[in-house]
# Entry
Amino acid sequence: EREREGYVMFGKKKTPQEMSREWTRNMKKEMRQIDRQIRKSQATKKKLQAEMKKEAKNVNGDKQRMAAVRIMAKSVVQTDKQIAHLYGTKAQMNSVCLQIKEQQATLKMAKAMKQSVQVQQIMGRLVKLPELQST
# Structure
């Protein structure tokens, strides 16, 4: 549990950059798994459609076969919904990855601005304005 909060063994804390890198890596890993699930579902859908077409040709008024075709059609629709849901989940995960990157960039910019202000303060102390104006 402590590892999730950013702590490592012996009380050493991970930097925000390390944590964001780890989170992004894990998110991309999950996105690849979702891609695999999408491909698997699409292959299943194609098989169902082919089987449904084959079965539909042999119906000839048989109610049992017609019921089987309907069940297959429902399965195809469910598979479509599942694929759409997986794409939505993947898009949300990608959005989170981009937000993490944006926060990381904001932190870098804030750090650079802080260093810039410190440099300006030091330069201000080194170069005293009244002495410059008198020369």
